[in-house]
Amino acid sequence: MNIILDAHGGDHAPLEAIKGAELAVKEYGVSVTLCGVEEEIRALADEHKVNLDEMRIVPAAQVLPMAADPSEIFGQYSESSMAVSMRLLADGGGDALVTAGNTGAMAMGASIIVKRLPGIKRAALAVIVPNARGSYLLLDVGANVECRPEMLQQFGIMGSAYMEKVVNIQNPRVGMINIGTEETKGHPLQIEAGVLLRESAVNFIGNIEARELPFGGCDVAVCDGFTGNVTLKLTEGMGKWISAEFKRILLKKTSTKLAAILIRDGLTKFKQAMDYTEYGGAPLLGLRSPVIKAHGSSNAHAFKNAVRQAKTMVETEMIGQISQSLRDLNGHSQ
Amino acid sequence: MNIILDAHGGDHAPLEAIKGAELAVKEYGVSVTLCGVEEEIRALADEHKVNLDEMRIVPAAQVLPMAADPSEIFGQYSESSMAVSMRLLADGGGDALVTAGNTGAMAMGASIIVKRLPGIKRAALAVIVPNARGSYLLLDVGANVECRPEMLQQFGIMGSAYMEKVVNIQNPRVGMINIGTEETKGHPLQIEAGVLLRESAVNFIGNIEARELPFGGCDVAVCDGFTGNVTLKLTEGMGKWISAEFKRILLKKTSTKLAAILIRDGLTKFKQAMDYTEYGGAPLLGLRSPVIKAHGSSNAHAFKNAVRQAKTMVETEMIGQISQSLRDLNGHSQ
Predict the structure, then answer these.
(1) End-to-end CA distance of chain B
(2) How many beta carbons lie within 10 A of that of residue A31, not counting itself?
(3) In this predicted structure, what is the pLDDT of residue A276?
(4) Looking at the predicted structure, is the pLDDT value of residue B309 above 90?
(5) Whole-angstrom Cα distance, residue A164 to residue A172?
């Protein structure tokens, strides 16, 4: 198996990207194709003693900036490492792609270059979010601000396939984020998507209120990209704020510092459970090949986990599962 | 000053409502008019030794159930304590109204019976949400699922007046919840509302991402009722989940239980800061008189604080401030 890694995406690229690639090659036995500015990659590898022996480097002339206008992946950055790695994936030069670069450019570029599966309206960006039962998959988290009901239905099908194949959850419970559990709640979007999801072969449990998400009310939470983005960022913000408050309480004086020592093990475990780097990246679902968006602040460990995630998506033939579910749905509705 | 209290709203009514009224009379020197089934109120007061001497009771024949269809406040529950208290307020029988009853019925009933201020498109339900800087006002939290840009502009104006007058925040920073800080982000709703808010006399600081809300990124967060409802419920859910995780860590074994004792003071303070009962209720803004929705699970303490909040809304002439701001805006845009 061969995973393509865009070496220039993210705040700590390319050094952390190539370090992560080295770890992944060693740990998972995959081959990795690095895509980027070859001289820069080789010079950094020399300086930091990163072993590139098992890796192929496909050169790219440019780096797409994190703040660039997404459509520039087809314009002034059409020779960027992100664009080149996508063409490589589309042409069969690898089995999956990992990038920590510009999210908008990735979503736009992948839909056109890697292409969507037949019948898929829009690719959705999905994120694994930690919660009381381990984690749930939230999608879409921002690739599609405006959604139609059929898109939310497809998000449910794709999210269900991902959780079943990649995270190994049997018969994942799919919920739709809404402002009440009744079928009449929400915008017309949610009311109509609810009808479609109930007709689908996924295990749709109905509407879910946002307060149930942290307690594991569902395994897949479906919503439009606006709601998903707010949900994801508020989850992050609340986690950081409350953790900071507890830290402040623990560091207040000598006696509370003793308390901090006594509960250190538990706190460390909880911090690990909340750590996004353990979960790899955000899969862009609905494409013909797996594409993973690693977090912009990914370190080597996060890149390594994103490669593992890409490997699992390939091994478990998750994309075939999505295609099959779509064919079943179309057969069913005809 | 005379505050009308719907004695039958909420899970613990009427007992906690009348206990709260007694506390409020004693502590704030207001007079309270209880609206409800008189025999039941008097019997409970006798049994629990609640002093009703300073209170007037306006009888109502019915109780509107928490799960009733909101429109039934004009139908089979038109003689309920909620409907009767609203007519009493509209007719000048009190200065403000507090109810812990059915939120939908309250929003619908108040708009028609108490009536909106001239020029106000829709009343908005606003909630004070605890955060790192104390609190912020979130509106709308569910009274208006579908919003137009002018409604979000008015939410900003009303929320700003509330925070300035009632919570005593000078020149409150008004932000609009969105998926990015750029003016081009979001649905057409947010893009157009942004233009209107920048034209308003409020201190509009632009878009705010949900991760900044817990850290006090703004004093007033404006959004449609769908987004506000998700934001409010996820804030609640995350707070409860993380607190439960810390509790689990603290109760694990003898040594961690010692830690719990060492940090008890800090935890208690944090818990108090997170406690909704301290903040009173959710004001329904945009009406001709103050109406406060107390939490459905309000105890006597929460009812008392909601009465205090109603008193402050009357004393500070917050509604006059909203009217003035609207007139200024209309003068400005003409």
Answers:
(1) 38
(2) 16
(3) 66
(4) yes
(5) 6
One-letter amino acid at B285 equals: L
Residue A244 neighbours by CB distance under 10 Å: 13
Does A191 contact B at CB distance below 8 Å? no
Q: Mean pLDDT throughout A166-188?
A: 94
What is the pLDDT, as a whole number, of residue A334? 40
The mean pLDDT value for B119-141 works out to 94
In DSSP terms, B127 is beta-bridged to B138
C-alpha–C-alpha distance, residues B106 and B310, integer Å: 16
Name which of B47, B51, B59 is nearest B18 in CA terms.
B51
Q: How many helices (H) and strands (E) does chain A have?
A: 11, 11
CA atoms within 13 A on the CB side of A173: 15
Contact residues on chain A for B243, CB-CB shorter than 8 A: 242
Q: What is the pTM of this model?
A: 0.92
Q: What is the pLDDT of residue B272?
A: 80
Question: Please, what is the average pLDDT of chain A?
Answer: 93
Q: Give me the residues of B, 194-213, that contact A with CB < 8 A.
A: 209-213
Cβ contact A227–B231 (<8 Å): no
User: Per the CB < 8 Å rule, is A240 touching B131?
Assistant: no
Q: Which of the 8 DSSP states describes residue B326?
A: H
CA distance A194 to chain B (A): 16
CB-based contact A266 B252, cutoff 8 Å = yes
At residue B82, does pLDDT exceed 90?
yes
What is the per-residue pLDDT across A248-261, written as a single tens digit (0 to 9) for each?
Answer: 888 888 888 888 88
Does the beta carbon of A334 lie under 8 angstroms from any beta carbon of chain B? no
ipTM for this model:
0.92
First to last CA, chain A: 38
Span A230-254, mean pLDDT?
90
How many A-B residue pairs are in contact by the CB < 8 A criterion?
148
Please state, in angstroms and as integers, the Cα–Cα distance from residue A142 to each residue in A107, A126, A139, following that order: 10, 9, 8
Helices marked H in A91-187 — which ranges?
A: 103-110, 149-165
CA distance A120 to A326: 8
